[in-house]
Amino acid sequence: MSGARLGRIGAAILSLFIAAAVFAPVLAPHDPTRRTAEPFEAPSLDHPLGANDVGQDILSELLFAGRLSLTVGISTAALAAVLGVTVGVVSGYIRGPVDSVMMRGVDVILSLPFLPLMIVLAAFLGQNTTNLILVIGLLIWARPARLIRSQVLSVRESGHVQAARAMGASHRYVMTRHILSRMTPLIAAQFVWAANVSIMLEASLAFLGLDDPLQKSWGAMLFYANSRSAFLTDTWLWWVLPPGLCIAVVVVGFAFVGYWLEERADPRLRPTLPSGVPLARSGPQAREEALG
Questions:
Q1: Which of 45-54, 146-155, 282-291 is predicted least confidently?
Q2: What's the rounded Cα separation, in Å, for the pair 74 and 70?
Q3: Residue 243 falls within a domain, yes or no?
Q4: Does 32 reside within a domain?
Q5: Are 59 and 48 in contact (CB under 8 A)?
Q6: 233 in a structural domain
Q7: Looking at the 3D structure of the chain, how many domains does it have?
């Protein structure tokens, strides 16, 4: 399956979940904070996914939890992208001591024991959504920074960049107008990767009870289900499985979109015909090139 088709499938998945999160107040059959059923009530017409241990409707809870999970994922990805792009572009373009200092900082972050450090920081800074976004964002920006820097090292030697510098253009002008414009597909791919990772990490921290106790995400739903021993009864079918599937499907959606964006950013990833002609050009002209 081509990257473009995977990208469309991933975009459709993400659009569906984002729409469900945005319109959760309209789609939710009940107020997720109120008791509207008996504790551990099985699924029914009034409660399609049953109820949790305090009688709250799980479907309504699932829709509203998606808002927090997606908000954390996208906000963290934005933070990581801003940091990664800034460090990567400045480091790759300026070079010299600036590059050395920045890349040593990136190396330090990449070498740290990621999960234990994230747990310690989340516990130390406090359990709220803002701190969660900061903790995850400050620990995942290094990978995008290194990848973007490697691309900038190539772009900065291109003819149009050299011409702009010869004409006296400032470093800021060259970086914003001539380098960033060439980096858009790669930046978008790294943003999607960061959102993907952030959603999984948020779910991990929430499952450990390190998220905001006043708000529920998909990971928090799993935490409460586990703490109420839902895994040991049939309740897991309607309390554990739905949020777990939501996390998995959203991650797959981001992965599909990310694969398509990486394919656009790096033509070497595109499938080719035996002659070396890119498959995306497999029309009459491509067949002539393949035969000729």
A1: 282-291
A2: 6
A3: yes
A4: no
A5: yes
A6: yes
A7: 1
CATH number reported for the structural domain that contains residue 160 in this entry: 1.10.3720.10
**Token duo for residue 270:** 């595109």
- 33 in a structural domain: no
Tell me whether residue 14 is exposed, middle or buried, using C-beta atoms within 10 angstroms of its C-beta: 0 to 12, 13 to 18, 19 or more: buried
Distance of CA 18 to the CA centre of its chain: 13
Can you give the pLDDT at residue 196? 93
Q: What CA–CA distances, in Å, run from 70 to 58, 81, 209, 264?
A: 18, 16, 18, 25
Q: Could you tell me the residue range of the domain that residue 127 belongs to?
A: 3-26+54-291
Average pLDDT over residues 123-146: 89
Helix (H, G, I), strand (E, B) or coil at 38: coil
Q: Answer for the pair 219, 204: CB distance below 8 angstroms, yes or no.
A: yes
pLDDT of residue 72: 93
Name the residue with tokens 């529920």: 216
What does the chain come to in residues?
A: 292
